[in-house]
Amino acid sequence: MRLFVALDIDDAIRQRLALFLEGVRGFAPDLNWARPENMHITLKFIGEQRPEKLDEMKQSLRSIQPTSPFDVSFRGYGYFPTAKSPRVFWVGIESGPQLADLSQSVDLALTRLGIPEEKRAFSPHLTLARSGSGRPHRSPGDRPNNKFQTVQEKLSALPPLDFGTMAAREFFLYESKLSPKGAHYTKLERFPFS
């Protein structure tokens, strides 16, 4: 089973993002564009796990008790690894320390089960499109990538992007099934804030 932990996105924000994608997708049809129904904020990518570990993971994640909802805003955009050599186009996520704290709590809860600890700093974002490998980090062979050029030009003429703010009230354990048509995500368990 290929697993990850994430926050879901409110329907109103998902609809605004879907409209935005309809407007920009045509500027770079060769990119691998995210499907709105798959959008989420990843807290921890777990990767392949044996189904027998599922109950233990759920139990460990239930021990996380955020005390109250917190706001998450979707605004701005950028590119990984850089704007000159982009492989990933993303929308920014703004939140108080609660979001990073939640990600750290998820990481700690799963590390206790032998799942590798996250080595990189938490960098919340919402992936909209990928090119090539989609790796977000720099590689020695990085070269300028023109696939995003028209998108970059069009967005530079627009006012700053702002898709709204939602209250995070729960997180989920997801299963990701890969297919030639793209990934399909299934919520396996809901973890409401107390």
Sum this structure up briefly:
The protein has 194 residues and is of the alpha+beta class. The chain contains four helices and nine strands.
List keywords for this structure.
194 residues, Cyclic Phosphodiesterase, Chain: A, alpha+beta, 24% helix, five-stranded antiparallel beta sheet, single chain, globular, 4 helices, four-stranded antiparallel beta sheet
Unreliable spans: 133-138
Q: What integer value in Å does the Rg equal?
A: 17 Å
CATH architecture classification: Alpha-Beta Complex
Number of continuous helical runs: 4
Backbone structural class = alpha+beta
Going by CATH, what is the homologous superfamily?
Cyclic phosphodiesterase
CATH class: Alpha Beta
What is the straight-line distance between the termini?
A: 28 Å
Return the domain count. Answer: 1
Helix content: 10-25%
Placed side by side, the strands forming the largest sheet appear as: 2-6-5-4-7
Number of DSSP-assigned strands: 9
Average pLDDT, rounded to a whole number, is 90
- Rough outline: globular
Biggest sheet: strands, sense, closure?
5 strands, antiparallel
Helix and strand run: EHEEHEEHEHEEE
